[in-house]
């Protein structure tokens, strides 16, 4: 949550100084103020797990966009098994519930930061159930079998990149 909190503090400081258009990137944590100076929405790339490119573009205004996944901070043991840094507190082992990454879009960085990690640990079904029950944010779930699930509030702001157009996308509804 440290990057999410830091992002919130930077955004607050900028707003207090009268900034009406800004984007900050804290590495996996992006936050925006308003729109771009030309009035269009900010375009945020969402990195594809285990690839160099972004699989999608999100267009946002006044939002935090935070992604957690097991594909950047990990090690591989001598047998080829991958261990990532997001741990399941019930087992003490790397969380492995079928997700490669979770992206949360919402009004505050600290909320998005904590949710992206927690929902990664929960897995697809529990994450979708949590969104349906609590709301207040949108999400993108990228599964280990290369399926993408997005909440319905992102439908008009989510664009799959051409190189990833073959991936199935499912909309999660309430």
Please sum up the structure shown.
The chain is α+β, with helices and mostly antiparallel strands and 174 residues long. The protein is 23% helix and 34% strand. The longest helix has 15 residues, at 2-16.
Q: Layout of SSEs?
A:
Layout lengths: L1 H15 L5 E4 L3 E5 L8 E6 L6 E7 L3 E6 L4 E3 L5 E3 L14 E8 L2 H14 L1 H11 L3 E6 L4 E4 L6 E3 L8 E4 L2
Helix pairs in contact: 1-2, 2-3
Organism: Acetonema longum DSM 6540
Cofactor: Mg(2+)
GO molecular function: metal ion binding; transferase activity
Order of SSEs, N→C? HEEEEEEEEHHEEEE
Unreliable residue stretches: none
The CATH class assignment is Alpha Beta
Q: In the CATH scheme, what's the topology name?
A: T-fold
- By CATH's scheme, which homologous superfamily applies? ApbE-like domains
Number of domain modules: 1
Question: What can you tell me about this protein's structure?
Answer:
23% of the residues lie in helices and 34% in strands. By secondary structure, the protein is of the alpha+beta class. It has a single domain (2-172), classed as ApbE-like domains (T-fold). The strands form three sheets. The chain has a seven-stranded mixed beta sheet with strand order 1-2-5-8-9-10-12. A hairpin with a 5-residue loop joins strand 6 (74-76) and strand 7. The longest helix is centred in the N-terminal third of the chain and has 15 residues, at 2-16. One of its GO terms (molecular function) is transferase activity. This is FAD:protein FMN transferase. Keywords: FAD, Flavoprotein, Lipoprotein, Magnesium, Metal-binding, Transferase. InterPro entries: ApbE, ApbE-like_sf.
């Amino acid at each position: 949550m440290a990057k999410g909190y830091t992002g919130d503090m930077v955004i607050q400081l900028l707003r207090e100084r009268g900034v009406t258009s800004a984007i900050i990137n804290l590495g996996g944590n992006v936050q925006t103020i308003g729109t771009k100076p030309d009035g269009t929405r900010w375009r945020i790339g969402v990195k594809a797990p285990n690839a160099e490119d972004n699989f999608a573009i999100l267009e946002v205004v006044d939002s935090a966009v935070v992604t957690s996944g097991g594909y950047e901070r990990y090690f591989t043991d001598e047998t080829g098994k991958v261990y990532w840094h997001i741990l399941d507190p019930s087992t003490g082992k790397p969380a492995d519930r079928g997700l490669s990454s979770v992206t949360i879009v919402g009004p505050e960085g600290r909320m998005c930061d904590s949710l992206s990690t927690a929902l990664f640990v929960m897995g697809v079904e529990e994450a979708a159930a949590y969104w349906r029950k609590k709301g207040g944010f949108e999400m993108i779930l990228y599964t280990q079998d290369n399926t993408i699930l997005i909440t319905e509030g992102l439908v008009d702001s989510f664009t799959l990149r051409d190189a990833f157009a073959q991936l199935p996308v499912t909309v999660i509804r309430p």
